[in-house]
Specification:
The chain has nine helices and twelve strands. By secondary structure, the chain is α+β, with helices and mostly antiparallel strands. A six-stranded antiparallel sheet has the order 1-3-2-12-11-10, sandwiched between helices. A two-stranded antiparallel sheet has the order 4-9. A hairpin with a 5-residue loop joins strand 2 and strand 3 (44-47). Helix 3 (119-128) crosses helix 4 (132-142). The relative contact order is 0.18.
Length: 287
Amino acid sequence: MVGMVTSGRGQSSAVSVSAEIKRLFAGQRGVFAMAFRNSQTGETILINEQESFHAASTMKTPVMIELFRLDGLKKIRLTDSVVVRNSFSSIVDSSGYSLNAADDGQQELYTQIGTKKTIGDLLYQMIIKSSNLATNLLIELADARQVTQTMRQLGAEKTQVLRGVEDSKAYRKGWNNTTTALDLMTIYDKMARAEIIDAKACDEMIGILLDQQFNEIIPAKLPKEVRVAHKTGSITGVQHDSGIVLLPDGRKYVLVLLSKNLEDEKAAVETLAAVSELVYRYASGQF
């Protein structure tokens, strides 16, 4: 469904915001989707919310959720340690591959191969610096199929987590992690409402997401006093951001911005940041 709006405080205003967002998207070559939900009122604005996208690094939030779930069940402990290594198996044929440090947002971990790091430390680096090496170590513990199943239980009906990062054989076959704006909105909204595992786990996950180091999209044009707990994702032609925006007065909303088939990624990032600013003005009563 394109441009669906449910509004609790003025249908015409929400429709105007939706129309302005579509205008901004139309100014760029590519495919865009967005999902907004006011965590207090339940109001939503949805554009292309069911469109499937390569998840890129947005799938790292589902992996984090699954690890917290396993910790809550005492199947693992976030304080447990694992040995850092750079050798993994393709989901296509179990052949080995390794990651290129130059392509990773967190390169320091590659200097620590052979040492032990806690699951919690790796999880933190997976989120705040989008560490691919940490992700591949952790997704083996979480199990990709179980991550997908946990997403289904949370109401994310189309998100598919199949594998770790840089499995080139799987990529060539089109075996990719996928998601939708609606699915990401659903899981972040449950996190904002403390409906994943328990309130303590949600608070801890939000705390990690607040330390995100890549802030070019959702937070870029927002006032400094506005905090954003979010996870980005990018590959060639793809720029995503998704998370929870916390206003100074305690109100919060969820915003997901996805894009693909981009011809000018820099311009698209600017557009997505402008959409975030527009949504902030609307959510804070300034539109």
